[in-house]
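Hey, can you fold this one?
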Amino acid sequence: MGAGHFLFSACAIVLIDLLLAGDNALVIAMAVRTLAKHQRRTATACGAGAAVALRVSLTGIAARLLTVPYVQLAGGLFILWIAVKVLVDASDPPDAAPAPKRMVQAIWYIVLADLTMSTDNILAIAGASKGNLGLIVFGLCVSIPFVVFAANLLAALMDRFPALVYVGAAILGKVGGEMILTDAFVVRHAHPSNGFRYAAEAALMTAVVVGGRWFNAARERRAVAD
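Sure. Predicted structure:
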Protein backbone atom coordinates (compact mmCIF):
# COMPACT_ATOMS: atom_id res chain seq x y z
CA MET A 1 0.00 0.00 0.00
CA GLY A 2 1.49 3.35 -1.09
CA ALA A 3 1.87 6.29 1.26
CA GLY A 4 -0.86 8.27 -0.53
CA HIS A 5 -3.34 5.40 -0.38
CA PHE A 6 -2.43 4.76 3.27
CA LEU A 7 -3.09 8.41 4.15
CA PHE A 8 -6.39 8.42 2.23
CA SER A 9 -7.52 5.25 4.01
CA ALA A 10 -6.54 6.71 7.39
CA CYS A 11 -8.60 9.85 6.70
CA ALA A 12 -11.56 7.73 5.60
CA ILE A 13 -11.34 5.73 8.82
CA VAL A 14 -11.32 8.90 10.93
CA LEU A 15 -14.45 10.09 9.10
CA ILE A 16 -16.12 6.73 9.67
CA ASP A 17 -15.37 7.00 13.38
CA LEU A 18 -16.92 10.46 13.52
CA LEU A 19 -20.07 9.30 11.74
CA LEU A 20 -20.62 6.05 13.62
CA ALA A 21 -19.48 6.87 17.14
CA GLY A 22 -22.61 8.80 18.14
CA ASP A 23 -24.68 5.87 19.43
CA ASN A 24 -21.74 4.49 21.38
CA ALA A 25 -21.04 7.88 22.96
CA LEU A 26 -24.68 8.16 24.02
CA VAL A 27 -24.67 4.74 25.69
CA ILE A 28 -21.47 5.61 27.54
CA ALA A 29 -22.83 8.99 28.63
CA MET A 30 -25.96 7.32 30.00
CA ALA A 31 -23.92 4.64 31.75
CA VAL A 32 -21.51 7.03 33.49
CA ARG A 33 -24.00 9.74 34.37
CA THR A 34 -24.56 8.43 37.91
CA LEU A 35 -20.82 8.47 38.64
CA ALA A 36 -19.06 11.34 40.32
CA LYS A 37 -17.63 13.74 37.74
CA HIS A 38 -14.03 12.86 38.56
CA GLN A 39 -14.78 9.15 37.94
CA ARG A 40 -16.45 9.58 34.57
CA ARG A 41 -13.32 9.95 32.48
CA THR A 42 -11.74 6.92 34.15
CA ALA A 43 -14.79 4.72 33.60
CA THR A 44 -15.24 5.98 30.03
CA ALA A 45 -11.60 5.45 29.08
CA CYS A 46 -11.45 1.99 30.71
CA GLY A 47 -14.71 0.85 29.12
CA ALA A 48 -13.92 2.25 25.67
CA GLY A 49 -10.36 0.88 25.77
CA ALA A 50 -11.51 -2.61 26.71
CA ALA A 51 -14.21 -2.51 24.06
CA VAL A 52 -11.77 -1.44 21.35
CA ALA A 53 -9.38 -4.25 22.32
CA LEU A 54 -12.23 -6.72 21.87
CA ARG A 55 -13.24 -5.06 18.59
CA VAL A 56 -9.76 -5.68 17.19
CA SER A 57 -10.07 -9.37 18.02
CA LEU A 58 -13.55 -9.54 16.45
CA THR A 59 -12.72 -7.73 13.21
CA GLY A 60 -12.12 -10.96 11.33
CA ILE A 61 -15.55 -12.38 12.17
CA ALA A 62 -17.58 -9.16 12.22
CA ALA A 63 -19.31 -9.91 8.91
CA ARG A 64 -20.40 -13.32 10.18
CA LEU A 65 -21.82 -11.87 13.38
CA LEU A 66 -24.47 -9.99 11.40
CA THR A 67 -25.75 -13.25 9.92
CA VAL A 68 -25.84 -15.22 13.20
CA PRO A 69 -29.42 -15.41 14.48
CA TYR A 70 -30.20 -13.85 17.87
CA VAL A 71 -26.93 -11.84 18.11
CA GLN A 72 -28.49 -8.48 17.22
CA LEU A 73 -31.75 -9.52 18.90
CA ALA A 74 -29.92 -10.07 22.20
CA GLY A 75 -27.93 -6.88 21.72
CA GLY A 76 -31.06 -4.86 21.06
CA LEU A 77 -32.78 -6.21 24.16
CA PHE A 78 -29.67 -5.37 26.18
CA ILE A 79 -29.71 -1.78 24.87
CA LEU A 80 -33.38 -1.45 25.82
CA TRP A 81 -32.59 -2.76 29.30
CA ILE A 82 -29.77 -0.23 29.67
CA ALA A 83 -32.11 2.59 28.63
CA VAL A 84 -34.70 1.70 31.28
CA LYS A 85 -32.05 0.93 33.93
CA VAL A 86 -30.39 4.30 33.41
CA LEU A 87 -33.69 6.10 33.84
CA VAL A 88 -34.30 4.22 37.08
CA ASP A 89 -30.75 4.86 38.32
CA ALA A 90 -31.04 8.55 37.46
CA SER A 91 -33.45 9.03 40.37
CA ASP A 92 -31.04 7.50 42.90
CA PRO A 93 -29.15 9.80 45.21
CA PRO A 94 -25.38 9.93 44.47
CA ASP A 95 -24.53 7.75 47.48
CA ALA A 96 -27.18 5.10 46.83
CA ALA A 97 -24.51 2.63 45.72
CA PRO A 98 -20.81 2.44 46.60
CA ALA A 99 -18.64 4.31 44.07
CA PRO A 100 -16.52 1.25 43.12
CA LYS A 101 -19.66 -0.74 42.40
CA ARG A 102 -21.07 2.03 40.23
CA MET A 103 -17.81 2.32 38.28
CA VAL A 104 -17.50 -1.42 37.63
CA GLN A 105 -21.15 -1.53 36.58
CA ALA A 106 -20.68 1.42 34.20
CA ILE A 107 -17.59 -0.16 32.60
CA TRP A 108 -19.46 -3.44 32.17
CA TYR A 109 -22.36 -1.63 30.47
CA ILE A 110 -19.95 0.21 28.16
CA VAL A 111 -18.10 -2.91 27.02
CA LEU A 112 -21.21 -5.02 26.36
CA ALA A 113 -23.13 -2.22 24.68
CA ASP A 114 -20.17 -1.25 22.51
CA LEU A 115 -19.70 -4.81 21.32
CA THR A 116 -23.36 -5.24 20.43
CA MET A 117 -23.59 -1.87 18.64
CA SER A 118 -20.24 -1.66 16.86
CA THR A 119 -20.43 -4.33 14.18
CA ASP A 120 -21.20 -1.68 11.54
CA ASN A 121 -18.19 0.33 12.73
CA ILE A 122 -15.91 -2.71 12.58
CA LEU A 123 -17.07 -3.66 9.08
CA ALA A 124 -16.72 -0.10 7.77
CA ILE A 125 -13.19 0.23 9.15
CA ALA A 126 -12.21 -3.22 7.88
CA GLY A 127 -13.44 -2.23 4.40
CA ALA A 128 -11.65 1.13 4.40
CA SER A 129 -8.42 -0.45 5.59
CA LYS A 130 -8.39 -3.05 2.78
CA GLY A 131 -7.35 -5.65 5.34
CA ASN A 132 -4.31 -3.71 6.57
CA LEU A 133 -3.97 -4.69 10.23
CA GLY A 134 -2.14 -1.48 11.13
CA LEU A 135 -4.96 0.64 9.72
CA ILE A 136 -7.58 -1.51 11.43
CA VAL A 137 -5.90 -1.02 14.81
CA PHE A 138 -5.44 2.70 14.07
CA GLY A 139 -9.08 3.10 13.12
CA LEU A 140 -10.39 1.34 16.19
CA CYS A 141 -8.00 3.10 18.57
CA VAL A 142 -8.63 6.56 17.15
CA SER A 143 -12.30 6.16 18.02
CA ILE A 144 -11.46 6.24 21.74
CA PRO A 145 -10.79 10.00 22.05
CA PHE A 146 -13.83 10.80 19.91
CA VAL A 147 -16.11 8.64 22.01
CA VAL A 148 -14.60 9.73 25.34
CA PHE A 149 -14.95 13.42 24.47
CA ALA A 150 -18.48 13.06 23.13
CA ALA A 151 -19.61 10.87 26.05
CA ASN A 152 -18.31 13.28 28.69
CA LEU A 153 -19.85 16.22 26.86
CA LEU A 154 -23.22 14.47 26.71
CA ALA A 155 -23.03 13.50 30.39
CA ALA A 156 -22.27 17.13 31.32
CA LEU A 157 -25.24 18.32 29.25
CA MET A 158 -27.47 15.78 31.00
CA ASP A 159 -26.31 17.15 34.35
CA ARG A 160 -27.30 20.64 33.27
CA PHE A 161 -30.50 19.62 31.50
CA PRO A 162 -31.90 16.49 33.24
CA ALA A 163 -34.67 16.15 30.65
CA LEU A 164 -31.98 15.07 28.17
CA VAL A 165 -31.74 11.78 30.07
CA TYR A 166 -35.20 10.93 28.76
CA VAL A 167 -34.25 12.04 25.26
CA GLY A 168 -31.17 9.80 25.42
CA ALA A 169 -33.23 6.87 26.70
CA ALA A 170 -35.71 7.34 23.85
CA ILE A 171 -32.87 7.34 21.29
CA LEU A 172 -31.51 4.13 22.82
CA GLY A 173 -35.02 2.70 22.49
CA LYS A 174 -34.85 3.40 18.76
CA VAL A 175 -31.34 1.91 18.51
CA GLY A 176 -32.44 -1.21 20.39
CA GLY A 177 -35.51 -1.59 18.19
CA GLU A 178 -33.47 -1.21 15.01
CA MET A 179 -31.04 -3.90 16.17
CA ILE A 180 -33.86 -6.30 17.06
CA LEU A 181 -35.69 -5.81 13.77
CA THR A 182 -32.53 -6.30 11.68
CA ASP A 183 -31.53 -9.53 13.45
CA ALA A 184 -31.11 -12.42 11.01
CA PHE A 185 -33.78 -14.52 12.77
CA VAL A 186 -36.35 -11.70 12.82
CA VAL A 187 -35.74 -10.72 9.20
CA ARG A 188 -35.96 -14.32 7.99
CA HIS A 189 -39.21 -15.12 9.82
CA ALA A 190 -41.05 -11.80 10.15
CA HIS A 191 -39.83 -9.86 7.08
CA PRO A 192 -40.61 -6.51 8.74
CA SER A 193 -41.42 -3.72 6.31
CA ASN A 194 -39.93 -0.26 6.64
CA GLY A 195 -43.26 1.08 7.86
CA PHE A 196 -43.49 -1.58 10.54
CA ARG A 197 -39.90 -0.91 11.62
CA TYR A 198 -40.54 2.81 12.01
CA ALA A 199 -43.72 2.16 13.98
CA ALA A 200 -42.04 -0.42 16.21
CA GLU A 201 -39.06 1.85 16.89
CA ALA A 202 -41.39 4.73 17.78
CA ALA A 203 -43.35 2.43 20.10
CA LEU A 204 -40.16 1.27 21.82
CA MET A 205 -38.96 4.86 22.26
CA THR A 206 -42.24 5.64 24.02
CA ALA A 207 -42.21 2.40 26.02
CA VAL A 208 -38.69 3.01 27.36
CA VAL A 209 -39.54 6.51 28.62
CA VAL A 210 -42.94 5.54 30.01
CA GLY A 211 -41.50 2.38 31.58
CA GLY A 212 -38.67 4.29 33.22
CA ARG A 213 -41.04 6.91 34.64
CA TRP A 214 -43.41 4.18 35.87
CA PHE A 215 -40.64 2.33 37.71
CA ASN A 216 -39.52 5.58 39.33
CA ALA A 217 -43.06 6.49 40.37
CA ALA A 218 -43.66 3.01 41.78
CA ARG A 219 -40.44 3.15 43.78
CA GLU A 220 -41.31 6.59 45.15
CA ARG A 221 -44.72 5.30 46.25
CA ARG A 222 -43.10 2.37 48.05
CA ALA A 223 -40.61 4.71 49.73
CA VAL A 224 -43.46 6.93 50.97
CA ALA A 225 -45.41 3.90 52.18
CA ASP A 226 -42.38 2.65 54.15
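The chain has eleven helices and no strands. Let me know if you want another pass with a different chain boundary.
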